[in-house]
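Hi support team,

I'm filing this because I wasn't sure whether my run with magnesium ion finished correctly. The job status page said complete, but I'd like someone to confirm that the output block is well-formed before I use it downstream. Pasting the exact inputs I used:
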Amino acid sequence: MLDIMSRKAQERIAHTERRIERRDKMLTHDMSKERATVEEVFDQATRMIVFDLMNSGFLYELNGVVSSGKEARVYWGTDKEGKDLAVKIYLTSSAEFKRGMHKYIEGDPRFKDVKHDTRSLISVWAQKEFRNLREADAAKVRVPKPIAVKSNVVIMEFIGKEGVSAPSLKEQAPVNPEKVYKLIVTYLKRLYQKAKIVHGDLSEYNIMMWRGRPVVFDVSQSVSIQHPLADFMIKRDITNVNKFFSRLQVKVIPDEELYKMVVGK
Ligand SMILES: Nc1ncnc2c1ncn2[C@@H]1O[C@H](COP(=O)(O)OP(=O)(O)O)[C@@H](O)[C@H]1O
Ligand SMILES: [Mg+2]
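And here is everything the job wrote out:
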């Protein structure tokens, strides 16, 4: 059986096994501390938001931590039917984050009239991620389906299985890079021309490979194409994507040409 399996398939299985092992370790390791984690990392208000989302039926269980970033933590959760969910909780204590956030929110016509205290800003940031996911999804860009948002907590479709996130492009190069590149070019166009937003942090780190197709995520910083930084951001996204796929020997569309295609000139 094993020898008829391609090397790639074997590698993929080994990779998945390693991820599951890591997850199990994380769970046994973290579960005892989980209560403490939820209690220490999150303020009272955040805990109330999580309970509220549980009471309104969006969330049934909050399991282990999937990712612990500077600005947010992503948890593996489940709904009543046992379906996996990703629960992204923005940390209200990240000072760096507060400074960084302003430039994206100001200048976006969708978010004029917002209050500037920390909790309000972080809440806007989470709403922005939710709204960007919805707009991308409506434009037929494959993203985690948005499910609910409340204050600094975003619930979305879990990309992966049983608490193990699908690998990012960075972690696992695609088997068919030409096909994946083409899809990402299509997504860039749809994001710009249909959803009228620019991702702004697109790279191999923020694209997962799931069931053979790329899934774009981490869209909290994405801005309207009218934002003063939009042009700079789309060019940077294009450069990042082209660089990555060039390294995989894909004959990429030159940056300038791709830019024109994406913005529709
Ligand atoms: N919807 C999701 N499904 C599964 N895993 C996810 C999901 N969203 C995020 N993750 C995991 O959490 C990590 C960090 O998420 P991301 O949205 O990029 O947050 P950050 O802002 O901290 O970079 C991702 O690399 C991925 O492994
Ligand atoms: Mg990220």
